[in-house]
Write a structure and sequence with these properties.
single chain; about 280 residues; alpha+beta; 2 domains; two-stranded antiparallel sheet; 10 helices
Length: about 280
């Protein structure tokens, strides 16, 4: 059975693919920058920063307290790398450490995930190495393929209670997970990279890969919202609306199979809950 087939089977069951594809991704990045950093304890964030040229190859592990990056203890080179990374996400961004109150909110969110989604919490523990706050941005949370394993928070995280902050963390885990699919194959046809269509979740036009990220994040959010008893109906409808936004020529065969698997999984869960409610 191919790795593509295995990933789709995992998704069909509602499982994550981190443990299947993550080691391949890490191995490829390590080979690119030199096997001298193959220390198993070296975080994926630092490996990707070096692999994509955001940080020099001699870059040392960033200072952390648990998963919280500590900007006060960072060296000048580390600060420069994190500033470049932040500005690649948003031009006016400035990286800072999370305050004690925000750290407590994140820890409460992690506890909420652990309470209702043990497998998700295990993958969070294993594959998400870093949290960092970015000032001067409009988003509540974000991810970057150049910093795999890092979840960025914006000051608007303060608008969320810990339960919805947990949903936001799962949302970002989904983006991180979708980065791994590129290890296997393209999801979008090359001639469709810049095909702009309305994206229901954001309410703006986005290219196919942007809509795929929206779809995948919604899929993981809905899975978690159902597990934890949070309202999920709006996000579930957005899954189907986003699927309808794709045009035939935009996705590769693998991309179409991924979308079909997400749709089938969501429909099965939807029908199961209807049966339970009727019962």
């Amino acid at each position: 059975m191919s790795l593509k087939d295995k990933t789709l089977i995992l998704i069909e069951k509602g499982d994550w693919i981190f443990d299947l594809i993550g080691p391949l991704f890490k191995g490829g990045l390590t080979k690119r920058i030199g096997n001298e950093i193959c220390n198993r304890q070296f975080p994926m964030m630092e490996i990707t920063l070096q692999s994509y040229g955001v940080a020099p190859h001699a870059f040392k592990a960033l200072p952390r307290s648990g998963r919280f990056l500590n900007m006060e203890e960072a060296t000048l080179d580390q600060r420069d790398a994190l500033l470049r990374l932040s500005k690649s996400i948003f031009p006016q961004a400035a990286p800072v450490s999370l305050s004690p109150w925000r750290k407590e909110q994140v820890q409460n969110a992690e506890g909420f995930i652990e309470q209702y989604a043990t497998q998700t919490r295990q993958h969070l523990e294993k594959w998400i190495s870093s949290y960092l706050l970015i000032n001067n941005v409009s988003f509540r949370s974000a991810s970057s393929p150049h910093a795999f394993g890092c979840i960025f928070f914006g000051e608007n995280m303060d608008r969320l209670d810990y339960k919805h902050l947990a949903v936001s963390i799962v949302h970002e885990m989904a983006h991180q997970e979708l980065f791994l699919f590129n290890v296997l194959d393209r999801l979008v046809q090359e001639n469709a990279d810049f095909s702009l269509v309305h994206a229901p979740f954001q309410g703006i036009v986005r290219p196919p890969i942007g809509r795929l990220h929206s779809l995948y994040a919604l899929f993981r959010m809905v899975e978690f919202e159902k597990q934890s008893g949070l309202p999920h109906e709006r996000h579930q409808q957005l899954i189907f609306d986003t699927i309808d936004s794709f045009q035939d020529f935009e996705l590769t065969n693998f991309g179409r199979r991924l979308v079909q698997t997400i749709k089938a999984r969501t429909e099965v869960e939807q029908n199961h809950r209807r049966v339970v409610c009727l019962g």
